[in-house]
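Dear V.,

Thank you for sending over the compound details. I've combined the ligand you provided, adenosine-5'-triphosphate, with the protein sequence from our construct and run the structure prediction for the complex. I'm sharing the raw inputs here so there's no ambiguity about protonation or stereochemistry in the SMILES, which I know was a concern on your side last time.
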Amino acid sequence: MAEQQVLLEAQGITKQFPGTLALDNVHLTVERGEIHAVMGENGAGKSTLMKVLSGVHQPDAGTIILEGRHIAPGNPRDALMLGISIVHQELSVVPALTVAENIYPGRLPVNALGMVRYGELFNRAADVLQTLDMNVDVRDPVSELSIANQQLVEIAKALSSNCKLLILDEPTSALTEREVEILFALLRKLTATGVGIVYISHKLDEVFKLTNRITVLRDGKYIGTVNTPETTPADVVRMMVGRPLEALYPPKAKQIDAPILEVQSLQLTPHSPANSFTLHKGEVLGIAGLIGSGRTEMARAIFGADAKHTGTISLNGHVLSIHSPTDAIRLGIGYLPEDRKAAGLFLSMAITTNVEAASLPEVTSGGFLNSSKERLLAEKYVRQLDISTPSIEQEVRRLSGGNQQKTLVAKWLAIQPKVLIVDEPTRGVDVGAKSEIHHLLRTLAEQGVGVIMISSELPEVIGMSDRILVMHEGAIAGEVLAAEATEETIIRIASGQDNTHKRKASALE
Ligand SMILES: Nc1ncnc2c1ncn2[C@@H]1O[C@H](COP(=O)(O)OP(=O)(O)OP(=O)(O)O)[C@@H](O)[C@H]1O
Ligand SMILES: [Mg+2]
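Below is the predicted structure of the protein with adenosine-5'-triphosphate bound, written out as structure tokens.
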């Protein structure tokens, strides 16, 4: 009886990359109808294990048994035919193709002449999207969708085949809370039909809300599997990092100094709201708000990445003229973007190239790149941020997601900014590395850098900031002191239901 419950059994999986033993004798069993979390710090081997199960990588040792039969998927198509679908951590949609073509890549319905039957394709795709409660036109190119919707297209693609085992590698990092709820409801519905789900996430609250069991990996090794209702977040963290984690957030600023950055009546278009705020030396200023509330747009306008309509930006009392990111960087303003893949990193280049990308004058002499200066710079930040890599020459796409994020942080630290704006700085980063990035931001603030942190994770905004601006529909709708803020207050301001924090804002400035 128990035997028949088991859907997938992976035993003794080992995978060696040049310089890295990514998986060392790892086990995983997934039962029918189960949601099974795989957790572990950045670089623990989670994605690699999923790539082995889904045919992207072939293991050096180990066996995979699906429904009692040995399988050895040689490529993702094989795995798909066997009923194993994966939604990868990094988006893999093709932006120029329509939503429908992305859902059925290489499996388009054709007529006798080999021509794609678009009507049928669009109808089928629309059906799949309906199960996801997704409101987009299947004829639209994917490039026109938000990141969240692109992610949902990936999930739709995974579900469009006859799927027995569904693997989701950090699927919610770009989703809003409502979208997460829809996804969870869908996953629960799927399990009722006997599908087994492997769910990778760094978010403990999600894992405890959603999953039946948790398997923990550390440094490529199998640590153990526990029943979710019988364990606690603290226990799981201990399994992941091998030690209990100290205080989650660093202490707040003891004192806030003079203003460093002043933004006055910043308007992005003639019809958008005018926003003003002041950032002080030594302060971490949080910016909260729903996805689409204008946080990123405001940051990009300050950084010169997007044009602004009117408004002034002053640094240490001098009005700046910023027309491009180059201007901003030269003046000492850094911006770490939310989408590391599209806007932040050169994935196919070395760590070195990425770290120095925004500070080339630092590593050139006489107009040429100076390789020992390059090396010193990269090595300094690899050490300081504890980026786990066999060498500074490693291509960034070969790093785990969290170590990619640390490389992006390094790039912006290297410009030695006076003001650093970070947009979702810990997305996809594990508990240990997250706490390192938090302490690092706080240390920067203590050294006199003004830090602006945009984050959708409310505990992070409250835990990290000294002061929090809350945006709603393009406007700064309220301001609260982090020490007095609750998640509830922020959500109310962010959804436009609370105006009482407006006056306090100007009083504080
Ligand atoms: N294609 C590759 N070539 C070389 N090394 C790789 C490759 N893919 C992964 N690695 C290495 O294998 C280790 C495990 O990486 P993996 O991506 O599985 O980690 P992860 O647990 O998914 O981490 P994260 O939480 O950051 O996504 C890391 O040290 C990584 O640098
Ligand atoms: Mg991963």
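A first observation: Confidence is low (pLDDT under 50) at residues 503-509.

Warm regards,
I. M.
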